[in-house]
Specification:
Elements: H1 9-16, H2 20-27, H3 40-50, E1 59-62, H4 70-76, E2 81-85, H5 88-97, E3 102-105, E4 117-121, H6 134-144, E5 145-156, H7 164-182, H8 196-205, E6 208-214, E7 228-235
Helix pairs in contact: 1-2, 3-4, 6-8
Length: 239
């Protein structure tokens, strides 16, 4: 599961017992050698799906981590791109890998941007927000986009209940809930709280017009439906 360059079991245990911010600060130097880093297949499929909708001007990577999403923005955006995250450790790694980009440390539940970007992306971050926190995140992204701007992120189809993946994710979420019930500070990381239906409703409430595009390059389930879709949330043009 982890490469030889990745964190040890002891290091992971220490990180899991920390806050989200402190945990990712500790994990940052080895994050790209873990399964938590967004795979190249997802980055590539996202870029391919967005390319016909561009080119874009300024790009924003929301919850950028070590900067993997910057690879997508650089191929799609003609202007300078920005990554925002609240982990200083993650931003240090991102800045080292992409010194030509701009990096901002901020709580994405209160993004400090107003009509500054044409495209915003996010990869693998929604599970770090409780459902009650997502409206603030989506409202902030909406505010950060220029009129007509686009917010895009991949979302996986729910695994079938008979699959091992379903029960593994359920077990992980249950373990995380127990951990947060008995240990402080909390570490929010849930895999089953971001259904497409809920996310679509929340984005619509934030002012977006929402569509989706199948990421067929990532494969299909047995029933023929795509394993993942790209959520496309568009901010209205100024009347």
């Amino acid at each position: 599961m982890f490469s030889a360059q990745g964190p040890s079991l002891r290091e992971l245990a220490i990180q899991a017992l920390s806050s989200v911010e402190r945990g990712y600060d500790l994990l940052a130097p080895k994050f790209d050698h873990t399964p938590f880093r967004t795979p190249e297949s997802i980055l590539g499929a996202t870029a391919d799906a967005l390319r016909p909708l561009g080119p874009f001007g300024q790009g924003l990577d929301v919850c950028c981590g070590t900067g993997a999403g910057m690879r997508v923005l650089k191929t799609l955006c003609q202007g300078r791109s920005t990554g925002v995250d609240f982990s200083a450790g993650m931003l240090a790694q991102a800045r080292s890998a992409h010194p030509d980009a701009q990096w901002v440390r901020a709580d994405v539940r209160a993004l400090p941007f107003v009509e500054a970007f044409d495209l915003a992306v996010s990869f693998g971050a929604l599970g770090h927000f409780l459902p009650a926190e997502r409206p603030a995140l989506f409202t902030g992204v909406h505010r950060a986009l220029r009129p007509g701007g686009l917010f895009a992120f991949p979302i996986a189809a729910p695994p079938p209940i008979a699959s091992g993946t379903y029960w593994a994710l359920l077990g992980f979420d249950m373990a995380m809930r127990v951990r947060n019930a008995v240990w402080r500070p909390p570490f929010v990381m849930y895999y089953r709280t971001c259904s497409l239906h809920a996310v679509r409703d929340e984005l619509t409430a934030a002012g977006f017009t929402v569509t989706t595009a199948p990421l067929t390059a990532l494969g299909r389930r047995k029933d023929g439906s795509p394993r993942a879709r790209l959520v496309l949330a568009r901010k209205a043009q100024t009347p």
